[in-house]
Amino acid sequence: MLIRYGYDITVTCTAPTPMVCLLNAHADRMQDIRKAEELVTTPFVPSRTYVDLYGNLCRRFTAPVGDLALWADGTIEDSGRHDEAFPDAREVPVADLPDDCLIYLLGSRYCETDRLSQMAWDRFGQIPPGWGRVQAICDFVHGHIRFGYLDARSTRTAAEAYDERIGVCRDYAHLAVALCRCLNIPARYVNGYLGDIGVPIVDPMDFSAWIEGYLDGGWMTFDPRNNKPRIGRIVVARGRDAADVPLINSFGPHVLKSFRVWAYDVTHVDADGKPTGPAT
Fold first, then answer.
1. What is the distance between the alpha carbons of residues 215 and 185, in angstroms, rounded to a whole number?
2. Are residues 128 and 256 in the same domain?
3. N or C: which end of the chain has fewer CB within 10 A?
4. Least-confidence region, from 2-11, 196-205, 266-275
5. 146-147 and 166-167 beta bridge pairing
6. How would residue 217 be classed by pLDDT, with cut points 50, 70 and 90?
7. Within a domain: 64
């Protein structure tokens, strides 16, 4: 399966504003890229990339006064399979975890393990350790929070999402991540593309957030927002929580003027192997 993906974003600034964006497909999918998503800016601004502490590709530039359009469009090959489940996967004792997993056991900006620890152990402590316990956390979060774009708030934490019982995909992810960490299961926040392949069309499309839990020596995908296996995830960035992986981080005020994202199955290509059809 080939998936065409990309974005068309316009921001407005009243002064030259340094920015860092995390919008590229993650490096662990580079072997699957069939058409790279080269950034086009209008007006043109020079930019450069670097890799952050979490292995994410970041792009630096300075936005000029006025409107700046950011556009990129790429194609990636995907297996077309649903997210894989590993019901026999076991938890790894803290003493045996790799060193680089330990940071994903700690509380972070949006995931207050200290405030949620007692509730987590009371609710999930008696569930057998492993895949089933992480899935039970996702089942709970999926049913506990009511989804709604009008309920989005950039400052909402996991504990606040638990108390308020409303939010968007990042709130589902933060609460699930925090509960896993409370139970000594390393968990990290993921954002990326998740199109409507195999499910009813959702319009407008947005970037999505889900989580990865560390079990049986590997990172495994869980999605407390949708809570069902999906096709065609394209990871953009991973971190402790949303504070580590903002799509656009500006060092000064900006206004988001327009925002469009796409990720869909491409069934036809032209003679050069490039996808045809509108990016909608």
1. 8
2. no
3. C
4. 266-275
5. parallel
6. very high
7. yes
Domain annotation covers residue 256: yes
Tokens 């992480």 map to which residue? 134
The answer to whether residues 231 and 191 belong to one domain is yes
Q: What is the CATH number of the domain that holds 71?
A: 2.60.40.2250
Residues 258 and 219 in one domain: no
CATH of the domain at 223: 3.10.620.30
DSSP strands (E only) in the chain: 2-13, 17-21, 33-35, 40-42, 48-51, 57-63, 66-77, 146-147, 166-167, 187-193, 208-215, 218-222, 234-239, 248-250, 255-266
Counted residue by residue, the chain has a size of 280
Kindly report, residue by residue over 37-93, the tens digit of the pLDDT. 989 999 999 999 999 999 999 999 999 999 999 999 999 999 999 999 999 999 999
Residue 238: strand, helix, or coil: strand
Q: Report the share of the chain in percent with pLDDT over 90.
A: 90
> For residue 44, what are the domain limits?
2-80+246-266
Alpha-carbon distance of 197 to 80, in angstroms, equals 9
Total number of domains constituting the chain: 2
d(CA 126, CA 114): 20
- State whether 257 and 207 are in the same domain: no
Least confident window among 11-20, 251-260, 264-273: 264-273
